[in-house]
Specification:
Elements lengths: L1 E9 L3 H19 L2 E6 L4 H7 L5 H9 L2 E6 L3 H4 L8 H12 L3 E7 L12 H4 L3 E7 L9 E3 L6 E3 L5 H16 L4 E6 L5 H14 L6 E6 H10 L6 E4 L1 H15 L6 E5 L4 E5 L16 H13 L3 H16 L15 H13 L4 H9 L7
Parallel strand pairs: 1-2, 1-3, 3-12, 5-10, 8-9, 8-10
Antiparallel strand pairs: 4-5, 4-11, 6-7, 11-12
Helix pairs in contact: 1-11, 1-13, 7-8, 9-10, 11-12, 12-13, 13-14
Length: 371
Amino acid sequence: MKLNIAVLPGDGIGPEVTKQAIKALQAIALEFDHSFSFTHASVGAIAIDETENPLPEQTLDLCEASDAILFGAIGDPKYDNNPDAKVRPEQGLLRLRKSLGLYANIRPVKAYETLLDKSPLKKHIIEGTDISIYRELTGGIYFGEKHLSEDGNTASDLCLYTKLEIERIAHLAFKAAVARRNKVTLVDKANVLESSRLWRRVVTEIAKEYPTVALDFLFVDNAAMQMILNPKQFDVILTENMFGDIISDEASVIGGSIGLLASASVGDKYAMFEPIHGSYPEATGKGIANPIASILSAAMLLEHFDLFEEAEVIRQAVEKSLLLNITTPDLNTEHTVTTSKVGDFIADYISNPKDSNLNFSNIHLGQSTII
């Protein structure tokens, strides 16, 4: 298969982790006789510095002309710490999602057996957790009309949803549940919000088309609590934009590090793949950022094009790196491995699965894992 992939590394650790995902994809292309081309473009704070625009037109044009997008992270303290900034890095990502119609964000959450002791939650609570979160991505309060009074003392953000916006992601969630464990949990705040009551009505109606799938409802505050008390109860979680943003970040503690969580943002025509973590500016250039989320996002990219065997090979390589403790400081404080060397090992394992155990010692000698 031939794929043209737009690479938007972004800010902070984005370029470092994205580079490791590209290594994995290049190894897959070599082993499975595919052709993947990568074209880079700027987005976020670096794009503002270059063009005064967080999403330059040439970046958007590249994304529209590509088969898929590999995204890093955006954000910079000079904007994060300045609430009066009129142009912000996040505006580039929001506009990208809206322009490309990326209405569904899919975030897998898994408790890896080898990392159960790394989580702040008790082992018996998280063991066996396997959740897929479907977050609506182009509607809701993030995109609603915003108002600030002339005196600057009153502000509002409108949370707006249409039936169509709810229907299209709900169908994706139910189809995913049919292929998983046949359960969808709708997370909302229907006891307070009219928009949530619309979600309940629409999703309840759609559920009739999927008779094998059980539909459950949780208010978002209870769902946040249940995510910590008993995450194994969840199969597919379906929710709106802001609730999904919060719930999925909360779920990151289950695996022991936010650096493990990948995501796909898909629409009817375009698809983008990115780790859920931020730009982590404090770690930029230090080689301590965990690239696994970005690498697993690359696996989701392959799955999007029905390259399931190739995606599974990447996941096996990730599992092996975790088993051998070839990880960054967020998961391994005693024998730290750099961001680049994690990527080297995973790429090497894809190409040489029987030899990579031998190469493990090379990492600690500061050598390349590729022989």
